[in-house]
């Protein structure tokens, strides 16, 4: 017996049979260096004779499962002698003991697949029982022993064998015991046979020793049975399998599709071709030899014209493969079925089917899905198919086949090509995997296969040599069946007509099938046959269409209108979902019995699909082509547009009549939809099939209506949009789990129909805004369409106005409710830090942005609404984002050295992060075909990744000598361009990774952006050298240069989609150039308050988006250069400084947006227009002592004086500083102004004339951050980046004393106490220090509590308190005498606090922040509502303030001061908002959901937030009368 180990299956396979001889000697041929039977052998082949027992024992003792042990056990046996023994004991072969022996041998083979030792043991055991069979006399005890062995083998039956294969680890111990016991029996049996060889009695007398041994072995069996009972609980195994399959069902969402025997080829047809294909599919597979697998043909493409029988072949192939145990999975595509025509369903379904069939794969798949909750059906083609198959340690022992039928009826050219590529790739890597695809011979499918020349077989079904014979046989069978049923002669209709039918069929089985269906339906088959054969000739397809005409004309009466209405509805709804008779009747208004009768009569063309709840379908897609084409007469022809119009009106009518409040009877608003265990059955009970269909597809059909005079359509639509039906519709979408389709349906409403009535237009727009803004609560819980949605919807909207008349007892927003939706915004606000990258989706409907706040956001491009929650996963700044070409995925790269892939629809992470770079990743992009991703990094390399599996492709592209800032593919995907900090551009071959030509040189500084022109002939590059170069992509020569020294760094550049324009971001402006002439086509686009990081054109070239360090995204009109939308109330950039007017009635603020704003301190309302005059960022503002003047210092190196009453500039700018001005202030008498600058000097100015007074005050060695007068005006104090504080004589400008030293980092803010005796300072070192103003000595230890830099400090008017604002986003109050912190930090700002100040009466504190808001706090309520912030102690200032700003992320969650609550649990426990915006009842369950823009205002304890209508405004709730939980339905008014 020669054994070798199969490396794929880990099974030991016998290569030669074992023959038994009279002699007990065994000849062993050894080909390894092992010791057998006491004899050592080298690598040369050696032979030795040993006895049977010794051979078995030595062989098995030395055998290791992981080592290949080729060995031959050759028992030479006389053939004649064996025949004699078999004849003599023939009766023994028939008895029960013999059957037991056969069972042992049979099941032993099955069990041996689990363990290589078992394989060897049962191979030897089969020899042993052959010996026992030959025994003339066998005793009962030996028979009993075999019965005992049989008892342990039933699990080898098919069902249990599959279970064991799934749980090999559970049974490993028991299998080991089985192996040992089997070998003991073999040894005993061989010895027993040897000793009994020459006994002639039929029954031997067993010795006592043998009896004891048999008893011992029998006892071993009993123990082993107990082991198997414990280890192999079949119900448990079924339960484990069921759990795994449920997980796969939930995550992969496979489509119900399978073969049917009744749809296969008729018995006796296509037999030769079927045999050939099945033989090809089940042939032995190539072992894991990579080159051998690659050379093998594992894909079979069966194609042909419509009606030739491809689908029947597919069903028959699947049935045969199933019978052979080789069917791994199947997918039957159908163009008229939305699920079966969805390419996104093909691979997930095949993966699920394969996992069902193969337990090892299922276990691994379930384990991977459990470990990574972000994996889903969209990962099926990469991680879950290719990735998992590669990671399996073993493969199936035989081939498994995946079958896809009618691929031409699924998806589009790109998706079909992708499916083919994935499957061919998989079959090329795994020799056991076979693929069979059927389709029409469409050009795109043919070209997709052609890419894999030599790796697939193909067959045109029309060229099957047996086709005519099969058609004839098929026809005969059908006609014979009809003749039998109708009492016609057996030879009906005769050979002549039989020949004519076969000839007319033209090889199309569908012709014969349709004809037979027609004949079966009629009372007189002869009549119908004559009519069918009487029609004209033509091509096979024309003859088929003539037959269709006969089928229709013979069955319908004159009521062609009802025919067209019903058939039109069946056709146009079938492309989304086939509907049953009742639903068709409900949509058309026809009586149900009419529809039933019509479908019955047209049974030759239509059928009811029992797998789709009786949905009516055409028997073949050629029926649809015929009914809607020119081949049918006009009175029967279905007008596709008119049919859609009729269905649209039917949908609107059904929804108007059928939708209602709480349609599924949900008992409590505490429940999420998932908590309602029978929700689907409730949907089916309360919503008819027509109503469910209408809710999902009304706008799909409505979009076909083009006639602006269609009165019926207008009236139907008007009725549907009346309050509160749109809300009922959203509720229906919620319970059906179909909310994502809502916004796409609303967008499809024809413009003419929306504009037919102003009210309709507003309602549809409101509904769209509503479904986008409240997507989270609508998806999560149907009651919260009303509980949360209506509560927070803006007041001046149609949906709110309508809701007031229908609903009551809702949550009340006492303060902070938005009045209206934002107009299409020019600014998208949501990120809390720099927006580093922006991009449009391929269809232009979405905008994505990546930010330093570590999130990716998705925005609706039309409304500006945030779509879903921010995408979180990166652990540091996100530098670049991009959409895949098909719009299904988003990629992002980060400072955290990873790339992440996201599902664009759900926002879920797809797979694990792509890791490999060793430095920050600055740029990513997809290849034009979507198959690859490129990335450029600070590690000086470019990497190419497989977009499906996330694996790196090839080695990194190396050549740059510094960080790579930008990468991009050429339009044809053949090349890659890269720009680097080494001042060069490189071009690479995208396939080989080789550099093409020499580096492109011309820039003299870092290159931040590169891009190809749409035609691939040009490359543009933008650089820190303030220029854009245009390069010839072929020669590498510069052909043009844009920009000039007066502009800023070029951070981003892009071509328009038509290649005619180039946009570039220079600093905080955008410039648009004519690409051919290099002439600017508009004025610079201005509006951002900080550097622009990214600019992009929309896919249609009509809009431009930009992302900036001012935390915003702006949308611009690409033609005019104008910002889209109006100005927002409030600053659009960081607020750097705030101050009260001396009378406390006004607040002033300045910003990075270059403006100053004045606010009413009591109401928060803006007073007048913003003050504009500076040409850059403003860093500080201050009031004069009399409140009549305002001064400001700016990055533009000037100081301006303003009339505080009218906001006009007073005089000319004060010029003298050579760098930006960080701090300004009036002297107490208002006669002088002091300023501190980055130029390290302090200047004093005459407030009336604007001229400088004396020379600059010099002494600091670094930038001056803050200056202030003493209360008496005699001194000036200054704080600097040089870590020191200096005191100056205000008259002479002389320094007084030595610098005040103690801080270990930049001093950001200084101030005198009201009595002038103390000076306070705040520093980057996180501390506040108090100094004696006279001696300069520190009064006490530093005030510690802030966990990040202190940016601003101020005394209270009475000098008793100090307030401070910090990078940690908190305001703190301190006891000025003791230095102790008072109360908890005041929390609410979402960004660093740059400025704090007391009101003149000391009752309030104001704070200005980089979150664009000013907050007013009650200074007398010295305690906050949240615990102090905590931060990782490893964070140190040496890492830099920018790092901390990016890493630190704290948001308070506890709602402040809800009023009117009558629920004791809420009063006692309070309310908090979770990360998704949900407020949970203290007793459990959903209470309400809070939109993102309301969350901060709800949790912030400040008494006023400016601007009052901004996204961070103060919000307060009133819960009085709020109906929720079990009483939630009380919100509905009885008469509405």
Question: What's a quick, concise take on this entry?
Answer:
The protein has 1536 residues and is an alpha+beta fold.
- Main sheet: strands, sense, barrel: 5 strands, parallel
Alpha-beta classification: alpha+beta
- Average residue pLDDT: 80
Distance between the termini: 87 Å
DSSP helical segment count: 41
Strand order of the largest sheet: 9-10-11-8-12
Return residue spans where pLDDT drops below 50 for at least 5 consecutive residues.
1-24, 28-48, 52-138, 152-170, 197-204, 232-237, 1423-1452
- What spatial form do the alpha-carbon principal axes imply? elongated
Number of strands: 74
Helix content: 25-40%
Query: What integer value in Å does the Rg equal?
Result: 41 Å
Portion of residues in beta strands equals: 15-25%
What's the layout of helices and strands?
Blueprint: E1 3-5, E2 12-14, E3 25-30, E4 35-36, E5 39-40, E6 46-51, H1 52-62, E7 71-74, H2 79-88, H3 90-94, H4 96-112, H5 116-134, H6 140-151, H7 158-166, H8 168-195, H9 208-231, H10 234-252, H11 271-282, H12 290-295, E8 299-303, H13 310-324, E9 327-332, H14 343-357, H15 359-371, H16 382-391, E10 400-405, H17 413-429, E11 433-439, H18 443-450, E12 457-460, H19 467-486, H20 495-505, H21 509-521, H22 525-534, H23 540-553, H24 560-574, H25 581-588, H26 592-601, E13 606-609, E14 615-618, H27 621-628, H28 640-658, H29 679-686, H30 689-702, H31 711-721, H32 725-736, H33 741-747, H34 751-754, H35 758-773, H36 775-780, H37 784-792, H38 798-806, E15 812-815, E16 827-829, E17 835-840, E18 846-851, E19 855-860, E20 871-872, E21 878-883, E22 889-894, E23 898-903, E24 914-915, E25 921-926, E26 932-937, E27 941-946, E28 957-958, E29 964-969, E30 975-980, E31 984-989, E32 1000-1001, E33 1007-1012, E34 1018-1023, E35 1028-1032, E36 1038-1042, E37 1050-1055, E38 1061-1066, E39 1069-1074, E40 1085-1086, E41 1092-1097, E42 1103-1108, ...
Parallel strand pairs: 8-11, 8-12, 9-10, 10-11
Antiparallel strand pairs: 1-2, 3-6, 3-7, 4-5, 13-14, 15-74, 16-43, 17-18, 18-19, 19-20, 21-22, 22-23, 23-24, 25-26, 26-27, 27-28, 29-30, 30-31, 31-32, 33-34, 34-35, 35-36, 37-38, 38-39, 39-40, 41-42, 42-43, 44-45, 45-46, 46-47, 48-49, 49-50, 50-51, 52-53, 53-54, 54-55, 56-57, 57-58, 58-59, 60-61, ...
Helix pairs in contact: 1-8, 4-5, 4-6, 5-8, 6-9, 7-10, 7-15, 8-9, 10-14, 10-15, 11-13, 14-15, 16-17, 17-18, 19-20, 19-21, 20-21, 21-22, 21-23, 22-23, 24-25, 24-28, 25-26, 28-30, 28-31, 30-33, 33-35
């Amino acid at each position: 017996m020669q054994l070798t180990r199969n490396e794929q299956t880990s099974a030991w396979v016998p290569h030669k049979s074992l023959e038994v001889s009279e002699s007990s000697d065994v000849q062993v041929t050894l080909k390894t260096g092992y010791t057998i039977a006491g004899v050592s052998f080298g690598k040369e082949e050696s032979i030795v004779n040993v006895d049977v027992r010794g051979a078995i024992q030595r062989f098995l003792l030395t055998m290791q499962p992981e080592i290949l042990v080729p060995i031959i056990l050759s028992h030479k046996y006389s053939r004649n002698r064996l025949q004699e023994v078999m004849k003599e004991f023939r009766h023994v072969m028939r008895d029960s003991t013999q059957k037991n022996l056969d069972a042992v041998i049979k099941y032993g083979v099955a069990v041996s697949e689990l363990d290589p030792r078992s394989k060897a043991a049962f191979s030897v055991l089969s020899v042993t029982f052959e010996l026992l069979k030959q025994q003339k006399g066998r005793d009962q005890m030996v028979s009993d022993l075999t019965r005992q062995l049989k008892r342990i083998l039933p699990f080898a039956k098919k069902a249990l064998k599959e279970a064991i294969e799934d749980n090999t680890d559970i049974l490993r111990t028991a299998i080991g015991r089985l192996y040992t016991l089997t070998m003991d029996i073999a040894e005993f049996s061989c010895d027993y046979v040897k000793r009994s060889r020459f006994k002639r009695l039929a029954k031997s007398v067993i010795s006592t020793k043998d009896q004891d041994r048999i008893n011992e072995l029998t006892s071993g069996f009993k123990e082993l049975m107990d082991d198997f009972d414990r280890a192999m609980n079949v119900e448990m195994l079924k339960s484990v399998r069921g759990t795994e399959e449920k997980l796969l069902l939930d995550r992969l969402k496979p489509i119900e599709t399978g073969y049917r025997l009744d749809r296969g080829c008729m018995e006796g047809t296509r037999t030769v071709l079927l045999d050939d294909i099945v033989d090809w599919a089940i042939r032995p597979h190539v072992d894991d030899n990579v080159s051998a697998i690659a050379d093998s043909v594992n894909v079979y493409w069966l194609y042909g014209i419509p009606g030739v029988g491809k689908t029947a072949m597919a069903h028959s192939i699947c049935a045969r493969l199933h019978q052979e145990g080789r069917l791994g999975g199947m997918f039957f595509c159908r163009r008229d079925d939305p699920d079966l025509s969805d390419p996104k369903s093909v691979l997930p379904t095949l993966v699920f089917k394969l996992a069902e069939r193969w337990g090892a794969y299922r276990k691994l798949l379930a384990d991977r899905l459990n470990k990574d909750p972000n994996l889903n059906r969209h990962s099926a083609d990469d991680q879950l198919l290719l990735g998992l198959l590669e990671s399996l340690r073993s493969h199936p022992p035989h081939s498994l086949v995946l079958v896809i039928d009618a691929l031409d009826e699924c998806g589009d050219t790109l998706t079909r090509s992708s499916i083919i590529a994935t499957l061919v790739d998989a079959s090329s890597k795994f020799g056991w995997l076979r693929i069979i695809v059927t389709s029409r011979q469409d050009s795109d499918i043919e070209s997709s296969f052609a890419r894999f020349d030599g790796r697939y077989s193909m067959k045109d079904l029309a060229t099957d040599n047996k086709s005519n014979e099969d058609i004839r046989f098929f026809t005969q069978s059908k006609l014979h069946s009809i003749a039998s049923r109708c009492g016609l002669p057996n030879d009906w209709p005769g050979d002549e007509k039989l020949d004519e039918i076969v000839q007319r069929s033209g090889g199309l089985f569908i012709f014969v099938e349709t004809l037979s269906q027609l004949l079966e339906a009629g009372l007189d088959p002869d009549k119908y046959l004559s009519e069918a054969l009487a029609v004209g000739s033509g091509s096979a397809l024309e003859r088929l269409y003539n037959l269709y005409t006969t089928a229709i004309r013979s069955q319908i009466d004159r009521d062609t209108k009802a025919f067209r209405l019903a058939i039109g509805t069946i056709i146009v709804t079938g492309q989304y979902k086939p509907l049953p008779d009742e639903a068709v009747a409900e949509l058309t208004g026809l009586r149900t019995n009419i529809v039933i009768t019509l479908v019955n009569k047209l049974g030759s063309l239509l059928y009811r699909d029992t797998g789709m709840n009786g949905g009516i379908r055409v028997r073949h897609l050629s029926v649809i082509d015929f009914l809607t084409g020119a081949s049918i007469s006009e009175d029967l022809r279905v007008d596709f547009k008119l049919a859609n119009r009729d269905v649209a009106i039917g949908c609107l009518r059904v929804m108007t009549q059928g939708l209602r409040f709480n349609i599924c009877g949900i008992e409590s608003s505490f429940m999420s939809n998932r908590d309602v265990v029978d929700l689907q059955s409730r949907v089916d009970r309360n919503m008819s099939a027509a109503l469910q269909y209408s809710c999902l597809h009304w706008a799909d059909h409505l979009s076909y209506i083009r006639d602006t005079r269609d009165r019926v359509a207008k009236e139907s639509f008007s009725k549907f949009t009346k309050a509160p039906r749109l809300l009922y519709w959203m509720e229906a979408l919620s319970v059906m789990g179909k909310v994502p389709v809502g916004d796409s349906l609303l967008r499809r409403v024809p413009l003419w129909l929306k504009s037919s009535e102003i009210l309709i237009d507003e309602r549809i727009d409101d509904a769209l805004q509503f479904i986008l803004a409240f997507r989270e609560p609508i998806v999560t819980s149907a009651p919260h369409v009303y509980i949360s949605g209506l509560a927070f919807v803006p007041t001046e909207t149609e949906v709110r106005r309508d809701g007031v008349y229908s609903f009551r007892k809702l949550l009340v927003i006492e303060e902070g409710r938005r009045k209206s939706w934002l107009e299409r915004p020019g600014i998208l606000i949501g990120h809390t830090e720099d927006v580093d990258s922006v991009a449009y989706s391929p269809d232009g409907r979405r905008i994505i942005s990546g930010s330093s706040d570590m999130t990716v956001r998705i925005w609706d491009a039309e409304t500006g609404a945030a779509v879903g929650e921010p995408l979180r996963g990166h652990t540091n700044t996100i530098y670049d984002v991009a959409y895949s070409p098909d719009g299904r995925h988003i990629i992002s790269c980060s400072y955290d050295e990873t790339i992440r892939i996201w599902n664009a629809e759900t926002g879920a992470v797809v797979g694990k992060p792509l890791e490999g770079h060793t430095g920050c990743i600055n740029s990513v992009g997809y290849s034009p075909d979507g198959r690859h991703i490129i990335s450029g990094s600070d590690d000086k390399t470019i990497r190419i990744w497989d977009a499906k599996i996330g694996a790196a492709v090839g080695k990194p592209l190396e050549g740059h000598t510094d960080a790579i800032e930008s990468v991009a593919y050429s339009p044809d995907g053949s090349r890659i361009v890269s720009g680097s900090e080494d001042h060069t551009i490189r071009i690479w071959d995208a396939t080989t990774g080789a550099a093409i030509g020499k580096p492109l040189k011309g820039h003299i500084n870092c290159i931040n952006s590169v891009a190809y022109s749409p035609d691939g002939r040009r490359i543009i590059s933008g650089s820190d050298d303030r220029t854009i170069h245009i390069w010839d992509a072929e020669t590498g020569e510069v052909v043009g240069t844009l920009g000039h020294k007066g502009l800023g760094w070029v951070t981003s550049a892009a071509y328009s989609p038509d290649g005619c324009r180039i946009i570039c971001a220079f600093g905080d402006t955008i410039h648009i150039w004519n690409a051919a002439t290099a002439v600017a086509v508009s004025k610079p686009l201005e509006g951002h308050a900080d550097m622009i990081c990214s600019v992009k054109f929309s896919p249609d070239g009509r809009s431009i988006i930009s992302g900036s360090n001012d935390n915003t995204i702006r949308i611009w009109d690409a033609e005019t250069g104008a910002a889209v939308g109006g100005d927002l109330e409030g600053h659009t950039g960081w607020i750097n400084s705030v101050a009260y007017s001396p009378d406390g009635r006004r607040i002033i603020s300045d910003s990075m947006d270059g403006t100053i704003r004045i606010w009413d301190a009591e109401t928060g309302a803006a007073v007048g227009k913003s003050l504009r005059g500076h040409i850059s960022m403003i860093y500080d503002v201050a009031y004069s002592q009399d409140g009549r003047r305002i001064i400001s210092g700016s990055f533009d190196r000037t100081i301006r004086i303003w009339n505080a009453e009218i906001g006009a500039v007073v005089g000319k700018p004060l010029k003298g500083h050579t760098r930006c001005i960080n701090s300004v202030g009036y002297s107490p008498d208002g006669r002088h102004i002091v300023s501190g600058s980055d130029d390290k000097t302090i200047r004093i100015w005459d407030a009336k004339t604007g001229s400088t007074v004396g020379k600059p005050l010099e002494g600091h060695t670094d930038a001056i951050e803050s200056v202030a007068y003493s209360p008496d005006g005699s001194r000036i104090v200054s704080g600097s980046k040089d870590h020191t504080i200096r005191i100056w004589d205000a008259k002479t400008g002389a320094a007084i004393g030595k610098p005040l030293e103690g801080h270990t980092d930049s001093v950001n803010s200084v101030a005198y106490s009201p009595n002038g005796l103390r000076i306070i300072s705040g520093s980057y070192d996180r501390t506040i220090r108090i100094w004696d103003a006279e001696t300069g000595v520190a009064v006490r230890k530093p005030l510690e509590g802030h966990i990040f830099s202190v940016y601003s400090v101020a005394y209270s008017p009475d000098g008793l308190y100090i307030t401070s604002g910090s990078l940690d986003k908190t305001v703190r109050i301190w006891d000025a005498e003791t230095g102790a912190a008072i109360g908890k930090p005041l929390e609410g700002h979402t960004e660093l606090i740059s400025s704090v100040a007391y009101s003149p009466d000391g009752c309030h504190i104001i704070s200005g922040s980089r979150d664009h808001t000013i907050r007013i706090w009650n200074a007398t309520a010295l305690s906050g509502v949240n615990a102090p912030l905590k931060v990782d102690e490893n964070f140190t200032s040496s890492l830099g303030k920018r790092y901390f700003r990016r890493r630190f992320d704290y948001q308070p969650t506890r709602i402040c001061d809800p009023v009117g609550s009558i629920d004791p649990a809420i009063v006692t426990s309070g309310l908090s908002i979770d990360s998704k915006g949900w407020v949970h009842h203290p007793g459990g369950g959903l209470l309400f959901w809070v939109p993102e823009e309301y969350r901060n205002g709800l949790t912030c304890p400040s008494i006023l937030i400016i601007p009052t209508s901004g996204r961070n405004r103060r919000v307060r709730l009133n819960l009085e009368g709020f109906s929720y939980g079990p009483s939630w339905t009380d919100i509905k008014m009885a008469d509405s």
